[in-house]
Amino acid sequence: MSYISAVDHLYALGHELAQAAPGTPRRKFDLAHMRALMAALGDPQKSFPSVLIAGTNGKGSTAATLASILAAAGYRTALYTSPHLIRVNERIRICEPGIDGVQISDEDFARLYFRVDDAANRLVAAGELPHHPSFFEVLTALAFLYYAEQKIDIAVLEVGLGGRLDATNIVEPLLSIITDIALDHQDYLGNTIAAITREKAGILRPGGLLITLPQHPEANQTIGEVAATLELTAISAAAFIPPTRFAASHMEGWTEGGEGDPLHLPHNRYTVTVDGEPLAVDSPLDGQHQQRNIALAIAAAVALRNLDSYKLSTTGNTGSYKVSNANIEAGIRETRWPGRLELLATAPPLLLDVAHNPAGAWTLRAAIAELPSARPRTLIFSCLRDKSVKEMTQILLPLFDATGGDPDRVRDHIVLAPIDNPRASTLQELLAAAQALDIPAYAAPTLADALAEARAVTPPDGLILATGSVYLVGEIRRLALAEGADPA
Predict the structure, then answer these.
(1) Which residues of the chain fall below pLDDT 70?
(2) In b/e form, how buried is each residue of 32-55, taking b as 16+ CB within 10 angstroms?
(3) Could you tell me the CATH superfamily of domain 342-482?
(4) Is the entire prediction scored with pTM above 0.90?
């Protein structure tokens, strides 16, 4: 069967978070179903050690950085992330020294997809599964099969949703990482930070190893309660974040460049101390918020090289990894994670950021505040309905209000557009949100039209910013790359 057939078949499974048809109950996830599927496939996930990463924001950046560090240390490292920007293959990668994460080939994807699908159909026919596995469960099973075939040294796995019932949570991780937690996916995870944290803490294991950072008080308390119950070892990555009073000086701010180099983004360049030695951080992931994700990756790398010193009851602890400070520096420097404050050298420049929930929007707002104030800018925005259209627009749209009285903003524009997702906000909902704020906005019928409109209204010395959804950023990025755009 062909790759196109496999992808079409996969998408026909539907999206886990799409609203169920009227009268149809929402799918209930159960790890027993995932375990049954993997047992039928030979339990490939048991053939390699893993790291699990859960959280609301920063999971992907942390995973990409840690995988790059392990690859720089010479380990054949699997990187499993979600969602993808352009092609589903992006989710399943293998990182090696000096090589950017290589996506699974179309041929391997198709071959393994139908292997998983055949096994699932047999289990359903035999009554061993109540229904066919979901989109994400199938992809996770496919990834585990591929990683086992590729004989990887270690897998870095980003949790898809929550943690406790996520398909990735059938592995026995060497260590677990919890990134920053905020309100998101409340329909599935709960309406409070504490409830959401408890779901995400489901990736922790009795006697295991946890890497995290101080954050929201409710999250801190819940993580602490779970850690105490499981009698695990908890490690804070706080030592690897530059002190707040020095953070600004560690950032190269948004500055005007010369011809052919229209804008410099704020880079993370600073020094931290690791095992008594200075370690130079030089990350291509821009924005001060990335310092937290980088710190988590550093702490995880240090823990992996010291595994023999921890008394872990978790199965699969195969011993420590040889990761030097120089490997950590090189891995951070070589990390690639597009769509996160990513600047494409177009005319005018195009800045992409997957600020897909209110917490991400606040983080992006802080970065926007550092833009050269007189530089005109155009926002391309859309978001999913379940991400709180009202809150997202309240956070971002006022920064592009040409009628708000700020003389620096009189040349700004807002272009709203639909995205291809069953959970997407409609143009009418987006326009209503802008009108409620009394902020002018133009509605484009497609994302391609939105990009064309943004280019038409943005002067050469301006900047276009596309944000609000991973799906928006992925499509805008695809359009720009197809026209020959390069990262700045």
Answers:
(1) 15-27, 183-191, 244-266, 311-318, 487-488
(2) ebbebbbebbeebbbebbbbbbbb
(3) Mur ligase, C-terminal domain (3.90.190.20)
(4) yes
